[in-house]
Amino acid sequence: MPSYKAPVDDVLFLLNxxxxxxxxxxxxxxxxxxxxxxxxxxxxGAKLCEEVxxxxxxxxxxxxxTRHEDGRVTTPEGFKAAYDKYTEGGWVGxxxxxxxxGQGLPHTLSAVMSEFLSAANMxxxxxxxxxxxxxxALTLHGSDAQKATYLPKLIAxxxxxxxxxxxxxxxxxxxxxxTKAVPNGDGSYAITGTKIFISSGDNDLVDNIIHLVLARxxxxxxxxxxxxxxxxxxxxxxxDGSLGAANAVECGALEHKMGIHGNATCVMNYDGATGWxxxxxxxxxxxxxxxxxxxRLGVGIQGLAQSEVAYQNAVDYARERRQGRAxxxxxxxxxxxxxxxxxxxxxxxxxxxKAFNEAARALILWTAIxxxxxxxxxxxxxxxxxxxxxxxxxxxxxxxxxxxxFQNTVMAQQxxxxxxxxxxWGMEQFVRDARISMIYxxxxxxQALDLVGRKLPANGGRAVMAFFQEVGEYVVxxxxxxxxxxxxxxxxxxxETLQQATMWFMQxxxxxxxxxxxxxxxxxxxxxxxALGYMWAQIAKAAQEAVASGNGNAAFCETKLxxxxxxxxxxxxxxxxxxxxxxxxxxxxxxxPAEAF
Amino acid sequence: MPSYKAPVDDVLFLLNxxxxxxxxxxxxxxxxxxxxxxxxxxxxGAKLCEEVxxxxxxxxxxxxxTRHEDGRVTTPEGFKAAYDKYTEGGWVGxxxxxxxxGQGLPHTLSAVMSEFLSAANMxxxxxxxxxxxxxxALTLHGSDAQKATYLPKLIAxxxxxxxxxxxxxxxxxxxxxxTKAVPNGDGSYAITGTKIFISSGDNDLVDNIIHLVLARxxxxxxxxxxxxxxxxxxxxxxxDGSLGAANAVECGALEHKMGIHGNATCVMNYDGATGWxxxxxxxxxxxxxxxxxxxRLGVGIQGLAQSEVAYQNAVDYARERRQGRAxxxxxxxxxxxxxxxxxxxxxxxxxxxKAFNEAARALILWTAIxxxxxxxxxxxxxxxxxxxxxxxxxxxxxxxxxxxxFQNTVMAQQxxxxxxxxxxWGMEQFVRDARISMIYxxxxxxQALDLVGRKLPANGGRAVMAFFQEVGEYVVxxxxxxxxxxxxxxxxxxxETLQQATMWFMQxxxxxxxxxxxxxxxxxxxxxxxALGYMWAQIAKAAQEAVASGNGNAAFCETKLxxxxxxxxxxxxxxxxxxxxxxxxxxxxxxxPAEAF
Lengths: 597, 597
What we know:
The structure is a homodimer.
Chain A: H1 8-19, H2 35-53, H3 57-63, E1 66-67, E2 73-74, H4 79-88, H5 107-141, H6 144-156, E3 159-164, E4 180-183, E5 189-199, E6 208-217, E7 228-233, E8 235-237, E9 243-246, E10 249-254, E11 265-278, H7 284-320, H8 344-376, H9 380-415, H10 427-435, H11 444-455, H12 458-478, H13 485-508, H14 514-549, H15 554-571, H16 574-584, H17 587-590
């Protein structure tokens, strides 16, 4: 059976020593998050994840959810009790608006907790995770009355929420959606249509579920310009806040999926259900987009989480399993064989996962802090700069961390040999669960297009120029520091490679847009490597400073330095291959007629 | 529901136009395999796979196998009837020894049929697949009496066979195995022990199952030098060939696996079962090794097969699913959206799979023919050269084609977006089934070590020098051919990169063997890319010649040329990254103490 230990020390090192969270004390909520409080919160959260949620992960996978004849959906054994513990701990409202019962702490802390939750039990974590989307939607776009009705219950965790976008014939291309909204004359609408792939769509964890639904008001324009956002509660809410009659919405079926069995992925049937417009008519897609960065960051976190828990278990196995002898000479002659962690190829897998995970965690926190600044900051210029960088990094985090996170779960499974293929060992579940993160919330190919087609050119390239400038200045500032040479050299090369690729798009994609599409996934991964390399440089610097000051844990810091060197040597060389592919353009990719495949 | 169309035309083009199978007519069995006969056989085999086996693939996954209280194992609905059709067609004996009822045709044809079978239904294909291992073991190492007893029944498909190596505490390191063999005094042995992960271990397709079992004779030396090979029938065979009493061997449990549910993966309990020594005492491991190349080639074929069937379905979906508009301009204005095959990033996925699969198929056939020459050839020098190349290429095929084949199933699933994650669409089954091929028959890390540690240095590097010479001469012979420039240039660069990596090992791995281990997986993939690039150059040449002669299908040949160009542009650049990683050596990989992970 797999186990999980939340990487609290690593997070604290990143927040305090690498990112320097105290620099953000001018942002509302940050001053309250003192180092001691953060530590206490994370340790408490870690305990919940390790002791309550992780032991339910296999059970959730084996049992899955059940839809009963009357349409009710029940979750796996133990999920309800665990959810109650989760809400009793006040975790839902950690960074939510204090006006509605939240604690107002930085979203960055929620991002950390999201990693722990997803690593412990991804299917479970999706229930409160989706509710965060509904909370964000109503906070940003709901009327005061809607906020008063829904937010306190959602933030307390008494109710859950969902996001309803996809329909059978449209996922990526929401302009095709058909769900209808007909005015009832009393300010409400009758919503009719079928939504699919609705995570947490129905369940027995709470009494009410608040669905956020994209639909087309009768007579609205075709395409994306005629889509509105509605709030549709599973159970109607009376004026006094008590629950009224059931609404005309039901889970029509549960999907049979590759993984995340413990989460109820529903086909939702809306049959004239009563809903209320959120925000403006026909501006529903724009409203969804304002929440997209957080949601996509959340999926990137899932990629890291599965990679981390799979890695931890692979390390345990590699220390315990004995097969063969070290090629450099027998290590434990008194035993019949050496533990497989002595073998370089096993090390290769462990180091690759470790070097990726630690930088990915840094990049997520670096970006999450920019999200906090963008939403709460008091300085307009700082807010804009933070929003630029968060928007730029979001598709990179979602695409790269889920792609590589998935590959890492496969690698961790490989460390187990034949046992990795057997369900009881739990490694194959990580692979199956992680797989969805590459698909939902915008498949990774869409992330790459978002990066190349939208985020790069936005505001005349302001965001990407700012990122290049920041990394470039970092390189200049440290290039004479001999101890930093193993990090600065490869980072400089990586940055130059990324700038060349960017230039190539500028010169070749205007006249022929297919050239941008053809190189988009390579560009996203190239961008991710440079961003991760930048994180490693900063981690290394912080580790060196901690050792120099005598305040740091020397072994911890030496491990960071060795792991960072591995990243630079073994993972960064991929940047050149990405550039080479990008520069070949679209010709051979688009040469064949569709019938020639 | 997924479908499958066996790539008969592609195989015929490879055999006739690229490899030139008629050149091998001096090898016994080849002259009988006239182009017309080969075509007829493959078309008949394709029909069986497409119409009988493929429709059972999902059923097999859903139902899995069942172990009953009495230890009997039953296979999914329809498997028995399909197996009977398979044996009635004479497929088991296609390339088996005519003295025992086989047809004596080239093994290369069996390799082709293996691809079709595995693509249609991998779990099913493993039943006769494992029997081929038993046939090979008895043909090569069995006594005349053993051959007479078992081979005719196995070759007719009336009985099946298994290979029993792994035990709970040992897989890779067979020196640790504990299963005991105690002489009964009558020439037989009593075999006692537990074997795990035994594919096809028990089933209801046949009346008898012939287990080939590695065990340690009482008093034998420890480690790999004390292991012997035994034949242990499930049901004892009387002197007249009729079935006698049940043997003391039973399936103790079925494993719960990530995939290949239709195949019974058994824990096999031997409780004093009667077995007979095959070959010499204590030479069991060596006997297994002589069959290893074929078995590993077979697993490489599974990797291609899953990649191919997943690719075919992704193409179908990409042609039918409509989302968004081509960035180069609307393609089908009369429709609400264009088919997703217009999008470059979807093309990238399809072209990557296609470019890999077609070269992988060529490499498998190129190697299988060398296997036939090695086993049947009449010229000693030719046999040795063929055996060298087959031995060299076996770990490359097993490791690279299963690694990339698996990635391709993931890519094909990605083309489906959210639907790829849903069981009914069948794409996630390809991912789960393909995953095992990276693990069993020697995990891919072991393949890489076999290549670097055993195959490279064998006979003073004779095999690798011969391969480099062959590719080098090919480059020289075609480097002035302008039409071949897009292929020869990247192949030349790839070969030079591979030679540099080889040289680096020669200079750096003697003194520090960890340097070889640290670079082994990169080296294996680098080797694979060069070998596949070499295949593409030959495919391109054959396509150009077919077009020039006016005999070829022009559209087919143009497709080959465009696909080959894609391979050279988009896949070959990876070679440089592999070399860079190899040249960093083991230092950062091995730096951390085990407790620092």
